[in-house]
Amino acid sequence: MIGGGPQPWRPTILGGMADDTLGPAYLLLGTDRPKIARALARLRARFGPEGVETLSAESSSGEDVVAALNALGLFGSGRLVVVEEVERWKKADAEELHAYLAQPAPGAVLALVADDAPRDSALPDMIGKAGEVLRYDIPKPKDPSVWVRTELDRLGVQASEDAARRLVEIVGDDVGVLAVEVEKLATWAGGETVGPREVELLAVSAGAESPAWAISDAWGNRDVAGVLTACEAELEEGVEPFLIAVRLAAQVGLVRAVQALASEGLTSREIAGRLKKHEFRVRKAFAHAERHSADDLDQAIIRLAEVDAASKGASRVGAELELERALIQITRAPEAAPAGR
After folding, report:
1. How many angstroms separate the CA atoms of 186 and 68, rounded?
2. Nearest-CA neighbor of 243 among 281, 204, 194?
3. What is the DSSP string of 218-280?
4. Per-residue model confidence as pLDDT tens digits over 11-40
5. What is the DSSP letter of 321?
6. Based on C-alpha coordinates, what's the Rg of the chain?
7. pTM score, whole prediction
8. 108 has which bridge partners?
9. CB atoms within 10 A of CB 76
């Protein structure tokens, strides 16, 4: 049964109490991704890095997972198989697990993770009988703007009441959506106070796209025309060139971090937990990392730092022109660069 509060023995898994008994299967689902990540981290710690295998339901079927569980059981020591995005699974995948759970492999523990309720409604009931279903949802606050200010404060961002109210006006009162926008604001704030103006520049209303994100997406996709168009839109809105450069530099830094962690074999969900970023941002960064080498990213950071310096008088060229030149240089594909550069 799915419950909003902790089950009687839940702390034995997640809190390290005296009773170390683990069931053969767990299902973690809900909208509170940070809590799910922390629960998984505590569960992984029970096995150690060598005893954990992470799969994705996008590429692994129920049959694949059962094979992994049975194979891991042959090692004779406790092992954990984590399967992400199980909301993608269909009835046939759940049926494979049902047969397995009748006689699970000794020492093998299965942890299924879902953002939404799985397609097959029998899966939660099935896991609940064999192990435990843990639901982590962000409760809907009475005053969403107060919740926004609390979250920004938790992330170390100073924000006015007007800014919090403006964010709710733009994106609505869906806490899941607000959580994404709050993280974006915290990322771009860089220690500066966030007011209504910053919210209007960065927040995305339903069906709209922020120019700030349009720039980073165009850069990541090596779309020179797109990055210049998005840049012009921001400049027309009165955004200072140095702020555009700083925000894009933050995104480049994220892509560089994701690229490095991906090379270690981590999945997007694991990287999101490690970096404390929303997974949608990490997935975008994954796509951008495929189009930019590590050297490209290093050079982009340097070039954007030069734009920041130019805006403070280090160049005779105007700040806007310096920014546009930099965007062209760091966005175009290497093969498009002139010979000798």
Report:
1. 39
2. 194
3. HHHTT-HHHHHHHHHHHHHTT--HHHHHHHHHHHHHHHHHHHHHHTTT--HHHHHHHHT--HH
4. 334 433 233 578 899 999 887 776 787 788
5. H
6. 23
7. 0.46
8. 79
9. 9
